[in-house]
Amino acid sequence: MTSIIDISKTPNKVEFKIKNKGDFEIALINALRRIILVNLSSINIDRDSVIFFENSSVFCDDFLNHRLSLLPLNVEELDKMDFNNLMITCDVKNEGAEILNVYPKDFNVMIEEKEIPLNKVFILENVIFCRLKTGQKVSFSSTLKKGTSKNESASFSLASKVSYMFEKDEKMIKEQLSQLKTEEEKNEFLLLNQERCYARNPDGSPSLYKFMIEGDGMVQTKSLFKMGCDYLTNLLNEKIELLKNPDSSDEIEIEVSKTNITAFDIIFKDSDDTLGNLIQTYGMKEIGISYIGYRILHPLDRILNIRVSLDKKDFSEKDVCQKIIDILKTVLTKVLTLRKDYG
């Protein structure tokens, strides 16, 4: 039986429901939401490369630089090109008496003296970039770069919105309303508290997630959920390989915890709450673990510390690593199921 139902796909929006029988924790759904928003690679204007040769418009260079970075690019087409050698230039002067609008269609795009069609670079060629009064001129050049919105800026995000919510339990809502006496109390409940009444499994977890993705046109919106699943799959496999042979990489450290309980600290470099919350949440259900928790050592450093203690009296670093591997493999199975059921 498929875990994903009621899929609705339009060019800029995808909605579907994820059935949960206790195996898809909120941490996993939220991890996919976070990944789609900030971790997927994109191609955008390299703001550090923008050079304004002349700008006599009413807008300062920094303002136009920012506007330039927000123009949606055709990432799928650019990924097929040698975009590292692509140059975007603009040289427009208003010679007329009326105010002149400057659009991306007025730009020139070249790769090593070969002209590239604008529709291969810009999604929208008729978005106003700036406006020029009589005699004013704007002239600049720019290159592109690859990055993520997490490491660069929001302009690199492939989605404008990613969200999930729980399916309302209408029966519970009616029961709650029946216990309220005044219209004021009922209106307040409907306004502020009805979202707390959601369909639940016997263990209290949500039985249905409503997932929604709004794209910004840079890639096909329907592809974003698969891309998120693929990213998480690669991340989990990468951490599993590190744990199998922790001494072979500087990306992981394992040390005895400096606490009153017998435990080990597993420190992943270049990791964040997305991974930490997943390991902690699914680790709490793992048989043989007496304690598991995580923290980010410093908000500005992507260093994830996971502390683990096992039920048995004597356990080693190897035992702890194997437990984390088991947890990651459990999460990996869930992710692969969602990707397959998404179609």
Key descriptive features of the protein:
6-stranded antiparallel β-sheet, 343 residues, 4-stranded antiparallel β-sheet, RNA Polymerase Alpha Subunit, Chain A, domain 2, 30% helix, Gyrase A, domain 2, 3 domains
Can you characterise this structure?
- The protein is α+β, with helices and mostly antiparallel strands and 343 residues long.
- The protein folds into three domains: 4-40 and 206-342, Gyrase A, domain 2, CATH 3.30.1360; 43-156, Beta Complex (RNA Polymerase Alpha Subunit, Chain A, domain 2), CATH 2.170.120; 169-202, no CATH class.
- 30% of the residues lie in helices and 29% in strands.
- It contains eight helices and 16 strands.
- The protein has helices at residues 26-38, 61-69, 75-78, 170-178, 183-192, 224-244, 273-283, 317-342, and strands at 4-10, 13-19, 42-45, 51-55, 86-93, 100-102, 108-111, 114-115, 130-132, 137-147, 159-166, 208-215, 252-256, 264-269, 289-298, 301-310.
- The strands form four sheets. Strands 3, 4, 5, 7, 8 and 10 form a six-stranded antiparallel beta sheet that branches. Strands 1-2-12-11 form a four-stranded antiparallel beta sheet, covered by helices on one side.
- It is globular and about 80 Å long.
